[in-house]
From TrEMBL, chains A, B:
This is LacI family transcriptional regulator. Keywords: DNA-binding, Repressor, Transcription, Transcription regulation. InterPro entries: HTH_LacI, Lambda_DNA-bd_dom_sf, Peripla_BP/Lac1_sug-bd_dom, Peripla_BP_I. Gene3D superfamilies: 3.40.50.2300, lambda repressor-like DNA-binding domains. It comes from Weissella muntiaci. Residues 4-58 form the HTH lacI-type domain. GO terms for molecular function: DNA-binding transcription factor activity; transcription cis-regulatory region binding. The keyword Hydrolase does not apply.
Length: 329, 329
């Protein structure tokens, strides 16, 4: 038997959900006739009021918060832009906070968004164990991050992406493949690394990952990438954890006189529209951002309406066929 | 004689500015001794309370709103990111709204930000004549847009940038130079066009500008860029109004078998860190974003403290020397 919902009570009583919620909470001005109608519908259906009834009473702000680790990276720019457009079309307004991968700052922004009484939150940041996320009654959906077990997460198949990129590079002759990733151990991005390491091990090759976080200055990124070439003079491929790393690595390599793809193969990750059009030669694992953001909005609405969702939603990745992953003699 | 400020009264009375403000507004719990001290300092200095005293009483939210036409373009991503970092360092938090170049949406977001009681607003959107901007007491600073005569605007020397790019292309042999720009007539970006048109006319060359707005879908941008080549088979150069247009034009040209810079010269505008590192071969006019955002934060603080500012601040541009602007036979 399906669970009886507040909607069912409203339907049977011939009143709105808000009215049912008011009757349940003894609030607002209601005629005795309405109260009786609602109560008899509740009895008839055997309805047990739950959290939803209370949530409906809360003043709706129609405001959704988005919390991201950075907005200067094209991936997060495109993510935020798609979410905002889809949410706005449904009547919500969106405010964006930028946490810069800093847990204190993330808590700060989180509290800010909560105090602005957002109806819901979409998070794409990477810091776990922030107690504010456990605040009951706040619907949250996570994209590409793990917050806690109550919060649904949407991600691309990071493990498969890592595997596919590494297999492709090995098939095309690479043996000394370096990977870049972020320092946050709880990020689903780590699955890209796990996929890479699994395939490397299977092929008796040595894994080596360099940490390049999102929101460090560009000069620092370029220095770290340069270090890869200094410390690994025999490197023959890079599987970059994101396209910005991949694009920057291409420039650093070229400055060192390393020709791509002749001397070095490169595969990136993300495949934003911007990167696919600015640097179409870069082969990259594509996250289906349009579908992922569509689902994020749907899930958030489900949570805001008190409906249950699954914990994890994984989207298959595809590959953008550029020319940086195959040697063309 | 310098104007006597509330700070001076506070200093002389040996109390905080808030206390002075409370005395002036007859609010809060104050001892008669304090009231007497403040009043005698006011008399001694000949202080005339002004708007500042009233503003200090307003509950500070330490929240700054940023309103942008898009966040998926690297220019606005970098702009928002720099502003956010600089503001956060000073103790503010930032919420970002994305207006998608849509006046209704801009009003919507503006009202949203106002209702969230932001202490100040930085706007980079392009829609003029929105009455909400005239709301008294809300400190606003504009970057690269004209809001109204009361609001200070920070911009790069767009006219000079347009001139420099066009002169460079002509020096390097181009004659049929197409420009891209946005449709908003009130955007300072139009000065890039005016600079281009002035130089073209001076050289007896025909100007032709194509409109490509920021927040249209990428496929539409690519179609518009393709149209440029269809309608102008003899085109020998493009001065793009921004780097995204320039980068996309390079890809469209290459797909049509047009070799850059052999058959076509290109110069862009913006010169973000991302683009300079992803596509260093693209010659582009660089806006000094770091300085511009630094000033935006300073100006906003001045306005929040009731101080006057100039109306317009124009930053000189520089050129990023790539290879797309000179024919290398």
């Amino acid at each position: 038997m399906p669970t009886i919902k507040l909607e069912d009570v409203a339907k049977l009583a011939g009143v709105s959900k808000t009215t049912v919620s008011r009757v349940l909470n003894h609030r607002g001005y209601l005629s005795q006739a309405t109260i009786d109608k609602v109560n008899s519908a509740i009895n008839e259906l055997g309805y047990h009021p739950n959290i939803v009834a209370r949530q409906l009473l809360k003043t709706k702000t129609n405001l959704i918060g988005i919390l991201l680790p950075t907005i200067s990276d094209p991936f997060f720019g495109e993510l935020a832009s798609l979410l905002e457009k889809k949410l706005y079309k449904k009547g919500y307004k969106v405010i964006i906070g930028n946490s810069t991968n800093d847990p204190d700052k993330e808590i700060d922004y989180l509290n800010q968004l909560l105090s602005k009484q957002v109806d819901g939150l979409i998070v794409g940041t990477h810091n776990q164990n922030i107690p504010e996320y456990k605040q009951k009654n706040l619907p949250i959906v996570a994209i590409d991050r793990i917050v806690n077990e109550d919060i649904p997460i949407i991600e691309s198949d990071n493990y498969d992406g890592g595997k596919l990129a590494t297999e492709r590079l090995i098939e095309n002759g690479a043996k000394r493949i370096i990977h870049t990733n972020v320092s946050q151990r709880e990020s689903p991005m780590q699955k890209r690394r796990l996929g890479y390491e699994a395939v490397m091990e299977l092929n008796d090759l040595e894994s080596k990952t360099y940490i390049i976080d999102f929101d460090i200055p560009t000069t620092k990124k370029l220095n770290l990438l340069n270090q890869i070439f200094v410390e690994n003079p025999n490197i023959d491929a890079i599987f970059a954890g994101n396209d910005t790393d991949a694009a920057y690595a291409m420039q650093v390599a070229q400055k060192r006189g390393i020709s791509i793809p002749k001397d070095l193969l490169i595969i990136g990750y993300d495949g934003t529209e911007l990167m696919r059009n600015v640097l179409p030669q870069l082969t990259t694992i594509v996250q289906p951002l349009d579908e992922m953001t569509e689902l994020a909005v749907d899930l958030l609405e489900s949570r805001m309406n008190g409906r249950d969702t699954r914990h994890e939603y994984i989207y298959p990745i595809t590959i953008w066929e550029g020319s940086t992953d195959k040697r063309t003699n």
